[in-house]
Design goal:
By secondary structure, the chain is mostly beta strands. Helix content is 0%, strand content 52%.
C-alpha cells in the first residue's frame, strides 16, 4: 500500500503564493509518476499538473500554465507544487496522486493512489 500526505495549504490573498508538498511512503516501487488535482466546491475534481517518473517531463492544465510549477525529489519521494499569482478561482482542495508507470496525464482514472487533500483558499 502507498500513503500520500499533502501539506502547505492555507489562506492567501489574491496574487500571493503557496508551496504545496506531497510525501509518498509505503510500497512505492519505481517507476511512478505523480500529479496534482484540485476540487472546488460543487465541481468535479480537475487536473492541475503532472510530472514523470524522473522529473524530466511535466504537463499543466491551461488554467495554471505560467503560474504553477511542479517538481519532485526522487530520492525523497516527494512532489511539490509551487503556486504563484494565485487567483480567486484557484480556491479548492488540492490532491496529490500517484500512478505506477513512467508518465501520467490528466485522467483521474489513470492514478492508483490519492492523498487526503490540502485546502487552498484565495481571498480578495
Amino acid at each position: 500500500q502507498v500513503q500520500l500526505v499533502e501539506s502547505g495549504g492555507g489562506l492567501v490573498q489574491a496574487g500571493g503564493s503557496l508551496r504545496l508538498s506531497c510525501a509518498a511512503s509505503g510500497r512505492t516501487f519505481s517507476p511512478y509518476a505523480m500529479a496534482w488535482f484540485r476540487q472546488a466546491p460543487g465541481k468535479e475534481r480537475e487536473f492541475v499538473a503532472a510530472i514523470s517518473w524522473n522529473g524530466g517531463t511535466t504537463n499543466y492544465a491551461d488554467s495554471v500554465k505560467g503560474r504553477f510549477t511542479i517538481s519532485r525529489d526522487v530520492a525523497k519521494n516527494t512532489v511539490t507544487l509551487q503556486t504563484n499569482s494565485l487567483k480567486l478561482e484557484d480556491t479548492a482542495v488540492y490532491y496529490c496522486a500517484l500512478r505506477q508507470g513512467y508518465y501520467s496525464g490528466p485522467l483521474r482514472a489513470d492514478y492508483d493512489y490519492w492523498g487526503q487533500g490540502t485546502q487552498v483558499t484565495v481571498s480578495s
